């Protein structure tokens, strides 16, 4: 099929006002009767046929206003049902289709997960349930009747509010009717039927309406849903308080399923979740799992306004709901936990996932202008960079200006299928500003680069910052225009205090933010009596790659004194990264370079500073990952050299700081029973970081400590962390620890996933055979996305030396897996394939093997559009 282009958008020719669905659940032949009230769109083309999308449907009957349609009146193809010459007036179509939920391995449309019937419609899954104009700008009011064997599916859930339910007289079946009063696009449709347990709670909204809350899980797992429920209630309150968004139905249900292509789905009033992001107990979930659950529960809930009440006109506008909703969930978590630590981890995620995407063949704008397969655009760029763009808007407009824009957006576009332009217009109108240049953030791909240098004039007490911006060429975009970049800065005086930012014209840099709008700009500050150290891009105010003329001494100073916690963290990371780049080059040449004292000093000072939040210290102790270093090097990357350099650095830091690390470890011994709250999690994170660095030294003492940590852990965070340390650093303790862990949790698939993922990440040549062997382990299933991502995804994404083995066997393993998976689940295959996104930056030998693997995938007969889109763009 030809690519879809933003510029080709046309309003729908036909609208749908109401949808009545009658769904007869059946394992292999579910029957769907759809009654659609259609009318010509006054904004569409006159006299148009009715074109309804369809995919793998079996059409059983079709009537127009109750009269069966003659075979000549319509055409059915593999992708559409077209009524050739319908009367140009409001009319009713009744369509009966049959689908096979048990054979639905794509996990799109109506499928079964461990026997439970469930649906996934975003982006284009509703067409796998019935024929429909499957596009987000067709909004209808849905009434759904679901019928099933009571024995098989005692629970029947739909969107909106429950209307009625009961037995189907004289049969073993029962039914439930749900009505959703809010018009919605079909991608937000959902139903569930199954044997599930429920935890119930309620929430009283700001205006006093009571909402019944339910979380449905596999039988026997209700005690693991409590944290998700708590996160849901906190999200509902937060959205009222921070954005004035109140919930709008009588019920809100969440269902956890074991087979799911992504994290979760925001269907109206009926969110469906990957059970990994619902189920948690101290014994089975880590602190990171709890934090993810909190964030994702919030994210899907927040979509109720940003996504559902205001949806997207077309799929090019995906960031309108995703970037904005990620921004909202980040803010929620920042309020619920430590804001600086949340910011640091969000930026780390952005740099590790989005920056490489933006620097490679899969780069695309936050709002793409063309796609072949929309499911491949649920990317770090649309989500994470999309959130950064919203954050920049807030930085530029200030707290109040941002809120005014959001209020206007929520008011002006409630009920609409909106665009990015309409979103920006609200902020422009509410603040009386022009956002034309800002809009480039949505249109230009690539990570902007900022080069900053500073000069202090002792005679005039002036300090000048010279800033140059550039944006590298990316696929399809050779020429770029300058962006507007909000650069938050500070000038830090010798005593560590921020100096006033008075520009030479007497004005102040508003809220410490410089607006970079030109290719080159200079800013002169006056009354600077002593040479300051500039703290640049504070809080990571813009998603750019910044280079500066700061010396190692300057960075060390910032690492110790910057009032901005993000830059305090970042200064030490910059020192470490600089060293690792040099050390990787040296390692490749068979030599070594000394570890900078400044780095050891910075880490030591951080460890010694009792005033710092333990969670912050844990982040600050982390040595940049191998992927971070590879990205910094950029071309001709040798993963083995990077691994060696990083291992040496960690060993050196470990040796230099061992007494301090051990003391900090001991000071943070657990007090009392496990609690997932941020403060307790922060203490565990710090203690575990100390353990990790100690073990990196490889001393018997450190490894014994790790073994004790493993043996005495009373929660999954500590147990799994210690297991990881043993598996990576203590080859002789590895197998017994892995076996003990498996034995203990063998019946718990989500925990077994951790065990699979960990083994896939061992940076030793045996990892490849181990991964192959694990694909035959009874715990593994090629059909379950969580298992596949845990094993294959972790190998390809988190084990750079072994995935990029010089002999090409790692690349071949991924290609084999993708070719196999693609026949069943194209979305999952395409996701895994994206692990090749930085293949062009590898050294020539590995580049050749990556290319060969990609070409082998490309040559597979019958490759899905999903995989062929990724492979095509990767090779372009
Ligand atoms: N909107 C869904 C993602 C759907 C992905 C479709 N391939 C989850 C989310 O972002 O909230
Ligand atoms: Zn989302």
From TrEMBL:
Keywords: Aminopeptidase, Hydrolase, Metal-binding, Metalloprotease, Protease, Zinc
Keyword Transmembrane assigned: no
EC number in record: 3.4.11.2
Gene3D superfamilies attached to this UniProt entry: 2.60.40.1840, 3.30.2010.30, Neutral Protease Domain 2, Peptidase M1, alanyl aminopeptidase, C-terminal domain, tricorn interacting facor f3 domain
Boundaries of every Aminopeptidase N-like N-terminal domain copy: 21-188
Boundaries of every Peptidase M1 alanyl aminopeptidase Ig-like fold domain copy: 446-548
Protein name per Swiss-Prot or TrEMBL: Aminopeptidase N
Cofactors (names): Zn(2+)
First-level EC class: hydrolase
GO function term, MF aspect, one: alanyl aminopeptidase activity
Database matches in InterPro entries: Aminopeptidase_N-like_N, Aminopeptidase_N-like_N_sf, PepN_Ig-like_sf, Peptidase_M1, Peptidase_M1_dom, Peptidase_M1_pepN, Peptidase_M1_pepN_C, Peptidase_M1_pepN_C_sf
Domain of life: Bacteria
PANTHER family documented for this protein: PUROMYCIN-SENSITIVE AMINOPEPTIDASE (PTHR46322)
Organism from which the protein derives: Ancylobacter polymorphus
Annotated catalysed reactions: Release of an N-terminal amino acid, Xaa-|-Yaa- from a peptide, amide or arylamide. Xaa is preferably Ala, but may be most amino acids including Pro (slow action). When a terminal hydrophobic residue is followed by a prolyl residue, the two may be released as an intact Xaa-Pro dipeptide
Short name of any one Pfam family annotated for the protein: DUF3458
Positions of the Peptidase M1 membrane alanine aminopeptidase domain: 227-438
NCBIfam families: pepN_proteo
Family membership: Belongs to the peptidase M1 family.
Positions of the Peptidase M1 alanyl aminopeptidase C-terminal domain: 553-876
Transmembrane segments: none
């Amino acid at each position: 099929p030809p690519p879809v282009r933003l510029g080709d958008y046309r309003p729908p020719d036909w609208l749908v006002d109401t949808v009545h669905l009658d769904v007869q659940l059946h394992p292999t032949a579910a029957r769907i009767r759809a009654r659609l009230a259609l009318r010509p769109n006054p904004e569409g083309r006159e006299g148009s046929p009715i074109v309804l999308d369809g995919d793998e449907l079996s059409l059983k009957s079709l009537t127009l206003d109750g009269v069966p349609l003659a075979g000549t009146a319509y055409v059915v193809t593999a992708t559409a049902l077209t009524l050739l010459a319908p009367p140009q007036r409001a009319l009713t179509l009744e369509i009966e289709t049959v689908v096979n939920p048990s054979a639905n391995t794509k996990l799109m449309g109506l499928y079964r997960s461990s026997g439970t019937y469930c649906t996934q419609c975003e982006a284009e899954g509703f067409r796998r349930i019935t024929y429909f104009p499957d596009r987000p700008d067709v909004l209808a009011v849905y009434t759904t009747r679901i019928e099933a064997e009571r024995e098989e599916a005692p629970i029947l859930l739909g969107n909106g509010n429950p209307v009625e339910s009961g037995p189907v007289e004289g049969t073993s079946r029962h039914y439930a009717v749900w009505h959703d009063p809010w018009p919605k696009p079909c991608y937000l449709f959902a139903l569930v039927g199954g044997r599930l347990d429920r935890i119930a709670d309620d929430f009283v909204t700001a205006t006093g309406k009571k909402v019944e809350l339910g979380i449905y899980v596999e039988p026997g797992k209700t005690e693991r849903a409590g944290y998700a429920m708590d996160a849901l209630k906190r999200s509902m309150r937060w959205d009222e308080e921070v954005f004035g968004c109140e919930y709008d139905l009588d019920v809100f249900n969440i269902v956890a399923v074991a087979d799911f292509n992504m994290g979760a789905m925001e269907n109206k009033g009926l969110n469906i979740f990957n059970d990994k992001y619902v189920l948690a107990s101290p014994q089975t979930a880590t602190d990171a799992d709890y934090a993810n659950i909190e964030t994702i529960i919030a994210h899907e809930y927040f979509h109720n306004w940003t996504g559902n009440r205001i949806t997207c006109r077309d799929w090019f506008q995906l960031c309108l709901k995703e970037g904005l909703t990620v921004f909202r969930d980040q803010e929620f978590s920042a309020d619920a936990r430590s804001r600086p630590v949340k910011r640091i981890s969000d930026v780390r995620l952005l740099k590790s996932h989005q920056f490489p995407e933006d620097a490679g063949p899969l780069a695309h704008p936050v709002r793409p202008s063309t796609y072949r397969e929309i499911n491949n655009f649920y990317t770090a760029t649309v989500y994470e960079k999309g959130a950064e763009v919203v954050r920049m808007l807030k930085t530029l407009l200030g707290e109040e200006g941002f809120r005014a824009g959001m209020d206007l957006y929520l008011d002006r576009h409630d009920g609409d299928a909106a665009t990015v332009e309409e979103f920006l217009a609200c902020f422009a109108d509410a603040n009386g500003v022009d956002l034309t240049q800002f809009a480039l953030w949505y249109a230009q791909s690539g990570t902007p680069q900022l080069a900053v240098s500073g000069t202090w004039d002792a005679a005039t007490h002036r300090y000048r910052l010279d800033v140059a911006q550039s944006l590298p060429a990316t696929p399809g975009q050779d020429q770029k225009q300058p962006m507007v970049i909000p650069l938050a800065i500070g000038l830090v005086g010798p005593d560590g205090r921020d100096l006033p930012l008075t520009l030479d014209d007497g004005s102040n840099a508003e809220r410490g933010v410089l607006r970079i709008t030109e290719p080159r700009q200079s800013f002169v500050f006056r009354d600077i009596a002593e040479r300051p150290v500039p703290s640049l891009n504070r809080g990571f105010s813009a998603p750019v790659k910044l280079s500066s003329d700061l010396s190692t001494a300057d960075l060390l100073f910032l690492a110790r004194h910057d009032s901005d916690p993000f830059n305090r963290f970042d200064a030490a990371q910059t020192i470490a990264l600089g060293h690792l780049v040099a050390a990787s080059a040296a390692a490749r040449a068979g030599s070594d370079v000394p570890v900078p004292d400044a780095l050891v000093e910075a880490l030591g000072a951080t460890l010694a500073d009792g005033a710092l939040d333990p969670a912050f210290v844990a982040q600050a102790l982390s040595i940049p990952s191998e992927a971070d270093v590879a990205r910094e090097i950029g071309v001709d990357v040798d993963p083995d050299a990077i691994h060696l350099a990083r291992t040496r650095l960690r060993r050196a830091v470990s040796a230099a700081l061992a007494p301090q690390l051990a003391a900090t470890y001991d000071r943070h011994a657990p007090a009392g029973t496990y609690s997932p709250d941020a403060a307790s999690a922060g203490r565990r994170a710090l203690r575990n970081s100390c353990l990790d660095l100690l073990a990196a030294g490889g001393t018997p003492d450190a490894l014994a400590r790790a073994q004790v940590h493993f043996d005495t852990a009373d929660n999954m965070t500590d147990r799994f962390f210690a297991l990881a340390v043993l598996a990576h650093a203590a080859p002789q303790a590895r197998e017994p620890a892995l076996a003990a862990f498996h034995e203990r949790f063998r019946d718990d698939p989500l925990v077994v996933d951790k065990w699979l993922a960990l083994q896939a990440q061992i940076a030793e040549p045996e990892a490849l055979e181990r991964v192959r062997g694990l694909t035959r382990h009874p715990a593994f299933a090629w059909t379950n996305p969580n298992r596949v991502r845990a094993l294959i995804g972790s190998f390809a994404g988190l084990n750079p030396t072994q995935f990029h083995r010089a002999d090409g066997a790692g690349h071949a393993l991924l290609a084999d897996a993708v070719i196999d998976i693609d026949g069943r689940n194209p979305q999952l295959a395409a996701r895994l394939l994206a692990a090749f996104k930085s293949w062009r930056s590898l050294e020539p030998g590995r580049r050749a093997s990556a290319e060969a693997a990609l070409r082998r995938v490309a040559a597979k007969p019958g490759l899905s559009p999903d995989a062929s889109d990724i492979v095509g763009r990767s090779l372009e």
